[in-house]
Design a protein that fits this description.
Length: 213
């Protein structure tokens, strides 16, 4: 007999790996007030405010839906397609715990990428089998480091910085894709190609250094 866990997993995998806009599925659950039953961590994103300067699109739920849709455009390039899409879905769970509005009105969510790991783990434990350790490790790793590629690109950091980052990452290629989806999943028009070029140079350097050692 198929369990509820299996049904949810199969439906989620179908949506994330096949739909052009996976956000429609989650929006429908939201409209039916069913998010809490199936995905409470995603429901918790609703109403979590963000800086209007960096995220004029709205709250964390809106941003996450935009990121998932951007990730769907890139998933065929990912080495772990399901893990990549799950990472896009989970990447900002930590903002629920860390978002603060300071006295000057500034909205911050410092260290949300690490703070959200427990919520990501709980989410993954509900939709994965015990033996899917590699999948859970991948998503947790991607969540933990999802901020760093764009931060390094913004700072035009030296190659040793990207080398250090990629050394800690399970799949550097997929992390670059996630960073791209995260950056484009906002209502801000931007050309991501300079950042992507920077990160690709860093990735080439990383592999050259790794192979030479």
């Amino acid at each position: 007999m198929t369990s509820k866990k299996q049904i949810i997993r199969e439906e989620l995998e179908k949506v994330l790996l096949n739909e052009e806009k996976p956000s429609i599925y989650f929006e429908e659950l939201k409209n039916k007030n069913s998010l809490d039953e199936y995905f409470p961590e995603i429901k918790a994103l609703i109403g979590v405010v963000q800086s209007p300067i960096h995220h004029p699109e709205g709250d964390v739920f809106v941003h996450t839906m935009m990121v998932v849709d951007e990730a769907s455009k890139l998933r065929n390039k990912a080495k772990n397609q399901f893990g990549f899409m799950l990472s896009a879905l989970c990447h900002d769970f930590g903002k629920v715990l860390t978002t603060q509005i300071k006295e000057d009105g500034k909205i911050i969510s410092y260290n949300h990428e690490r703070a959200g790991l427990k919520s990501v783990r709980n989410f993954l434990n509900r939709i994965t089998d015990k033996d899917e350790v590699d999948l859970r490790d991948y998503v947790l790793n991607m969540t933990q480091f999802h901020m760093q590629p764009n931060q390094l690109a913004n700072q035009n950091s030296k190659l040793k910085s990207t080398r250090k980052l990629f050394f800690q990452v399970i799949c550097p290629e997929d992390l670059i894709l996630l960073a791209k989806a995260d950056a484009l999943g906002r209502s801000v028009n931007q050309d991501y190609s300079p950042k992507e070029s920077y990160l690709r140079r860093g990735l080439e350097d990383f592999y050259n250094k790794t192979l030479s050692e």
